[in-house]
Write a structure and sequence with these properties.
The protein has 340 residues and is α/β, with parallel strands linked by helices. It has helices at residues 4-9, 30-36, 42-46, 49-63, 76-80, 101-105, 113-129, 143-152, 160-168, 170-194, 211-232, 249-255, 269-277, 288-293, 295-309, 328-339, and strands spanning 67-69, 85-88, 92-95, 135-141, 198-203, 237-242, 260-262, 282-286, 314-318. It has one domain: TIM Barrel, CATH 3.20.20. The chain has 16 helices and nine strands.
């Protein structure tokens, strides 16, 4: 890829690092909220190609980000596997829980292609409208993270239901992970075929796992996805993001042949430079609350990241998704600081 972000994924340092933000198409933008009011739920918006394409393109038009990320949700995979998924206002996602081994072992098969076809249509629409220099990113959730929602039926503060289930019923839980690995691999392959340039694997809840379980439920399944995608699409560009991985981050980098590693805002910058960026391009890792705060605190945070990481291959990003109440002016301040 000859686009700025693609060059970083090739291992090349850019004088001005490419910039995008996780959840950049979303609730902090008035133009997004105007469209959001016209549809029933987030899931309805994910499956409305013209509207999903429009909200994917909105932040690129407004800010000139170096990447667009597909507007979708990690829980479209459980939906396509026939599980009930809905989004309740103020509550987040609600799923039919997979809370017994017997129920879990009934989960079989590939996801319903018809259920996911609107997403591939969104990709085609975005691809046709995207500036030539802008990288288009697809994504999926890490199997562990998606499984945590499927077991509990909702997000919980420490995802204890899935952790307990994995300890008590490891064979049944491994079956769920196997199904999700197969489904996620096929889903990413089809996103790449539809037109995305690269994909990101969001393992949002990786950081709650102890080392042995991190190896079993985060690293090993992600290895299988990366290998499966590259068998079908040789040279596919893949970013891994194991949020909260802490001391497990080095092992993640050593074991996984991803093209870049996303860093959350808790990662020490000297460690990121010396232990991670010396092995792989990095992406991150501005604290979303620093962006929310703006002013001198935001400038200091940006300057620290640039001082530590801009000497190597860096994609400037947040350490997690942008917060809904972030002022648009603070995003403009960030871009001016990074690019100036």
């Amino acid at each position: 890829m000859h686009k700025p972000l693609g060059k970083v994924l090739n291992g090349e340092r850019q004088a001005v690092p490419p910039v995008w933000m996780m959840r950049q198409a979303g609730r902090y933008l008035p133009e997004y909220m105007a469209i959001r009011k016209t549809v029933g739920s987030v899931l309805d918006l994910c499956f409305a190609p013209k509207l999903a394409a429009e909200v994917t393109l909105q932040p690129v038009r407004r800010f000139g980000f170096d990447a667009a990320i597909l507007f979708s949700d990690i829980l479209v995979i459980p939906h396509a596997l026939g599980r009930s998924v809905r989004f309740a206002t103020g509550e987040g996602p609600l799923l039919e829980p997979l809370d017994t081994p017997d129920v879990m072992m009934t989960l079989h098969g590939a996801p319903d292609d018809a259920a996911l076809s609107p997403i591939y249509e969104t990709i085609r629409l975005v691809k046709a409208a995207l500036p030539q220099e802008t990288t288009f990113l697809g994504f999926c959730g890490g199997p562990w993270t998606v499984a945590t929602y499927m077991v509990a039926g909702r997000g919980t503060p420490d995802q204890a239901p899935a952790r307990l289930f994995a300890y008590r019923h490891p064979e049944a839980f491994a079956h769920l992970i196997d199904v999700l690995v197969e489904a996620s691999t096929g889903y990413l392959i089809k996103q790449l075929a539809a037109g995305v340039d690269a994909v990101q694997i969001f393992d949002t809840w990786a950081g709650i796992l102890p080392p042995d379980e991190f190896e079993r439920w985060c690293i090993a399944p992600t290895q299988r996805i990366v290998a499966g995608v590259r068998r079908a699409v040789p040279g596919a560009r893949i970013i891994g993001f194991p949020r909260g991985a802490g001391s497990n981050l080095l092992r993640y980098v050593e074991r996984l042949p991803v093209d870049a590693v996303g860093l959350d805002w808790m990662v020490d910058l000297a460690f990121a430079r010396d232990a991670i960026q010396s092995r792989r391009p990095v992406q991150g890792n501005l604290d979303p609350l620093a962006l929310r705060a703006g002013g001198a605190a935001l400038d200091r945070s940006i300057d620290a990241i640039m001082a530590a990481l801009s000497g190597g291959p860096l994609i400037f990003n947040l350490g997690h998704g942008i917060l809904p109440d972030t002022p648009v002016a603070h995003v403009e301040q960030m871009l001016k600081r990074v690019r100036g």
